[in-house]
Amino acid sequence: MPARTAPHAHGQPIFGMRKTFISEVAPPPDLSGPAWWFGFHRNRLLLQQTDATFQVPCLERFEELGVSAGNRHYLGRYDGRACYAIDVLDASVPAHLDFQDLRQAHSGIDEDLFVLGGRAVQIVEWDRTHQYCGRCGTRNETKQDERAKRCPKCQLLSFPRLSPAIIVMVERDGKILLARSPHFPTKMYSVLAGFVEPGETIEECVAREIKEEVGITVDNIRYFASQPWPFPNSLMLGFTAEYAAGEIEVDGVEIAEAAWFSPDAMPAIPGRISISRRLIDYFLDTHG
Ligand SMILES: [Zn+2]
User: Of 5, 68, 156, 247, which is most buried, counting CB atoms within 10 Å of its CB?
Assistant: First the structure.
């Protein structure tokens, strides 16, 4: 991934690295010094206590931490320092170390390191679940020149899996469409979202998800921003859209309740970690 400055969608800053990250599969031979170690036991991030807070360990050798580790994966360079994803085998670690759910860690660690942690956990999980060929069961080989595994028998290639999903803020006469999933904490509402199906464009996906979940049609579908969402492997593609026709009719399965909300009567909404909140904030910002 090349260095990029944060672009803007509808005038809003969107997600992306603040400092330069260079994605690489193999470390340059002259790379030395402290590295960032993104260790995961299952999907929990290994953190090291520094002063009063827990941070992503940054040191020359992972072995210094005294933790039993499995496969490691070089990810690239962040601000000049090597980054590794590492599979931590043992849940019991020395007292100055701890594991945190990646979502929980978001509030305590640097935003860039959170994003890199999301990258790391997906590589570790992909490695864990692609040890054998999905077609013929032969043990896979790791490719040295790209992030992929290859079956030496039938040549099937396996890449890290990404599941694209849309997320959309629908507006009607100065009100925002928010819905509550049966899986949400009680009373929390958010914008609509859903996975892209094979064979459809993302714009078709936006229209289909809205129609399926709340029974209305929209127009003026516009791209907003994207966010990697490593829970477990989504890429969220954010859109805005305008109400066109129909009345709200929830499906009762994916959506328990849905309604139009005005800026001065908003329900409980998601936290700042996610693009759903950025979409809602964008609506609030543009409606006083
Ligand atoms: Zn095979």
Answer: 156
Above pLDDT 90, what percent of the chain? 83
Which residues, including other chains, have CB under 8 Å from residue 215's CB and lie 6 or more apart?
A: 246, 247, 248, 249, 250, 251
Answer for the pair 46, 67: CB distance below 8 angstroms, yes or no. Answer: yes
Q: What is the radius of gyration, based on Cα positions, of the chain?
A: 21
Which tokens go with 109?
A: 């660690």
Judged on CB neighbours under 10 Å (0-12, 13-18, 19+), 29 is exposed
Q: Rounded to the nearest whole angstrom, what is the distance from the C-alpha of residue 24 to the centroid of ligand 1?
A: 26
Where do the domains of the chain lie, and which CATH numbers do they carry?
8-129 (3.90.79), 163-285 (3.90.79.10)
Residue 247 CA, ligand 1 centroid: distance in Å: 50
Quickly state the pLDDT bin for 288 (edges 50, 70, 90). Answer: confident
Query: C-alpha angle 231/139/137, rounded to 5°?
Result: 85
Q: Which pLDDT tens digit goes with each residue over 102-140?
A: 999 998 999 999 999 999 999 999 999 999 999 999 999
| Separation of CA 137 and ligand 1 centre (Å) | 6
**Model confidence, pTM:** 0.90
Kindly give the distance from the C-alpha atom of residue 208 to the centroid of ligand 1, in angstroms, as a whole number: 36
